[in-house]
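Support case: pyridoxal-5'-phosphate complex. Customer-provided input:
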Amino acid sequence: MTHFHYKENQLFCEETPVREIAEEFGTPLYIYSRQQLIENFRSIDGAFAGVDHTTCYALKANSNPELLKLLVKEGAGADAVSAGEIHHALKAGFHPSKITFAGVGKQDSEIEYALKHDIFSFNVESAEELAVINDIAGRAGTKARIALRINPDIDAATHPYISTGLKTNKFGIDIEVAIETFKYAASLPNLQVDGIHTHIGSQILKLDPFVQTARKVVDLVGKLRAIGIGIRHIDFGGGYGVTYKNAIKHPLLPLEHETGSEATPGNEAFISSVLPILRQADCKIVIEPGRAIVGNTGILITKVLYRKDNGVKKFVIVDAGMNDLMRPSLYQAHHQVAPLVLNEKGTEHVDIVGPVCETGDFFARERTMPFMERGDYAAIFTAGAYGFSLSSHYNARPKAAEVLVNGEKVRVIREREKLEDLK
Ligand SMILES: Cc1ncc(COP(=O)(O)O)c(C=O)c1O
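Agent response - structure generated as follows:
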């Protein structure tokens, strides 16, 4: 049960009818539940009770400053992948000692920026990057704390575009050469080797890939300590999957067909499956969840503009497009779509498409949906992660507004862009 729910036939976010929010603030509109965000964070962070750890929220999932500030208050750290994300994190109030910096292509200026702010750790992805960070730290008269990102060659059984822990992926250092690379890192004078980092992918729904990875990482910590390389922290990355199908249920909503492999074990289960293994290493533990914290915190509201029936297919054309929520176009990702107000007009088989001039601009294809017509509003569920953060101005479309709901209160946390804002 999330904080988006139907009261009788009307969708609510916490205590507020979503239709009223849509009418007041217009569409397309991202709506976030404050309570959901906090509960998600606590369900992950709380699973570490008594263990030295930091839950570094992955900003790439959603870097709205107001959501970040709520996470700061909860004690979160930040996982950044660019100087821009480090900047957002610092501005929101994350302490530099809780900021990690990952990414296969860190620019020199980004490394300088991160060094200047003395962040917790550079998660380094290649031997060449080690040399570059060492040089830049030397010039700056400082030492860089680093963790090496290991590619454990584990199949996370997720979409190939968000799988990152296989040999064929560009991420991390091959586990086969990890020890050699750690020795090299330890030989560089301006680096302080502190940790091992790994992140095997996103939207992972099975526990086993995490368990296998944890075993490999702990084994590596032991081997490194045996040759005198002290590892003080394990950064285990993120990747915990969330529910996209049947995110919300109601007798008037068609049940979405599940293949059986789409159920998420849940945040506590992800952590408890690996915690006993990771604890054997006697290290501080860092994790970097993004989607599991913000995914079901947000929905995207859109309004039906037109209907169209070409004899072969029926289309419902809405005012949100792939520029607002790219996941369906990018990875054929499934998002549940449901009207804000349910009626007894029955269901039909339709494509729900946006206004962008691409055939790939769709939210649902060949889907059984409650009948919707011009002026009706619909919610696209589980849109809080990789929604707004992946949005663009494609087709010169101003970006959507974002609002935060707290009980009966609604607050704009990002103004809708106007035509004049387009550069
Ligand atoms: C290094 C790293 N950490 C954390 C994350 C967050 O992943 P998720 O949102 O699936 O938890 C990502 C996302 O791809 C990532 O690349």
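Residues 90 and 96 are 7 Å apart (CA to CA).

Case will auto-close in a few days if no follow-up is received.
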